[in-house]
Amino acid sequence: MIRQLYSLAMWLAQPLLKRKLKRRGAKEPGYLQAIDERFGRYSAPVPPHDGPTVWVHAVSLGETRAAAVLVAALRKLLPDMRLLLTHGTATGRAEGAKLLQPGDLQAWQPWDTVGAAQRFLSHFKPQIGVLMETEIWPNLVHTCHVRQMPLVLASARLSEKSLRQAQKLSWLARPAFTELNAVWPQTPQDAQRFNQLDAPVRAVFGNLKFDATPDARQIALGRQSRTRLGKPVVMVASSREGEELALLQILQALRAPFPAQPGPAVTDSVVDQVHWLIVPRHPQRFDAVAELITTQGFAVSRRSHWGVQGPELPAAAPGQPPTVWLGDSLGEMALYYGLADVALLGGSFEPLGGQNLIEAAACGCPVLMGPHTFNFADAAEQALAAGAALRVADLSEAVKVAGDLVADAHRLASARQGCDSFAQAHRGAAHGLARAIVHVMNASVAGLVKTG
């Protein structure tokens, strides 16, 4: 009865989903692509293939980048496999297209109705499904279970907050977790939380994001620009709504006032001695953040307007407002981390749980974190222990500490060494996960659906 009520609610919500996609599509046209796929309806038949079809679901951009290293490891073990890649967001789908090889397939995640899930599985006929990190949909999981199609959760994470929410909805969440064939958490702490939901935890392999290799060319370009500019760069990485305004207001308050009479201005504040770079988390907010920068009394220089040499030094004319750089591009985080001396971790200064700090460390960029890192709690603590990150109470303290850090060459070099140690110490999850996935798939073929 519980599942039937949930299924009815999801079926009734389909018009709302269509309306939401149209609204988002006005700003991100990718959401208007192949909308029928969201409901398990496909226009083209799936061509025959001799090897297994491995379905990997990576809902958004971060999960898709983590999936890239897992897909590469799977291809080594299964050279004849066909990849079926699904997503929930336009940025995830655009990033996922880079992973496709001839014969591979890509589609939207089916909306969680029984009909859409059944049509999805009947159309693509995968031999195994791999859900990345946190994506659990009750009807999709149950449909796979009924069809004896193995479904696993890889590089899984579950925060204390998410556990409490799942326990409140245990009548729906617990059956979904128990019907999975295997769960491989990122950390022992995640494993303990999954165990409280009776999930089939098999082993802890770690976080796939540590196995991702940043684009070396982008890092080099960023560092070349930083050297040429001759002044330190502080970046706000993957900023969320509310954080940009708070930062700009802090910087505005710290600005050295220009004199009313002709003469030299005082330029010893962190605003004047540092280049500030904001990289918003969501691309649909690029224009809004650019407007916010100007309305707060700063000039803005957008990445989309830079030449091949990178950002230009702003004119130092008296009376001109300081320039804030805006990273308004996708797929260039390695360039931004290469450009920056220090990064302030977006999503951690508002109660949003923080963003991934592993990529920053892999690029050699130390991180300042706010108080809210519950989405990446274990990685945050490991980064603190390695010296790759520092914890601050709020954005005001982050601005002060960032200014102090970039002015101290010895301390900054030590933090960069901490980044390297942190990034190297936790590699190796991809190979172990790939072997475990292949084992579950082969066991399913042999009729041992519940082995992990």
Describe the secondary structure blueprint for this structure.
Layout: H1 2-12, H2 14-27, E1 53-57, H3 61-77, E2 82-87, H4 90-96, E3 105-108, H5 114-124, E4 128-132, H6 138-146, E5 151-156, H7 160-168, H8 170-178, E6 182-185, H9 188-195, H10 216-229, E7 233-239, H11 243-254, H12 270-273, E8 275-280, H13 286-295, E9 299-302, E10 323-326, H14 333-339, E11 342-345, H15 358-362, E12 367-369, H16 377-386, E13 389-391, H17 395-406, H18 409-425, H19 429-445
Helix pairs in contact: 3-4, 3-19, 5-6, 6-8, 7-8, 10-14
Summarize the structure.
The chain is α/β, with parallel strands linked by helices and 452 residues long. The chain has helices spanning 2-12, 14-27, 61-77, 90-96, 114-124, 138-146, 160-168, 170-178, 188-195, 216-229, 243-254, 270-273, 286-295, 333-339, 358-362, 377-386, 395-406, 409-425, 429-445, and strands at 53-57, 82-87, 105-108, 128-132, 151-156, 182-185, 233-239, 275-280, 299-302, 323-326, 342-345, 367-369, 389-391. Strand 1 (53-57), helix 3 and strand 2 (82-87) form a beta-alpha-beta unit.
Say what the CATH topology of the largest domain is. Answer: Rossmann fold
Beta-strand residue fraction: 5-15%
- Provide mean pLDDT, rounded: 91
Class from secondary-structure proportions: alpha/beta
Share of helical residues:
40-55%
Any idea what the CATH architecture of the largest domain is? 3-Layer(aba) Sandwich
Give me the number of helical elements.
19
Main beta-sheet annotation: 7 strands, parallel
Q: Unreliable runs, pLDDT <50, ≥5 residues?
A: 258-267, 448-452
Whole-number count of domains: 2
What's the total count of β strands?
Answer: 13
Question: In angstroms, what is the radius of gyration?
Answer: 24 Å
Oligomeric status of the shown chains?
Answer: single chain
- Could you state the CATH homologous superfamily of the largest domain? 3-Deoxy-D-manno-octulosonic-acid transferase, N-terminal domain
Report the CATH C-level class of the largest domain.
Alpha Beta
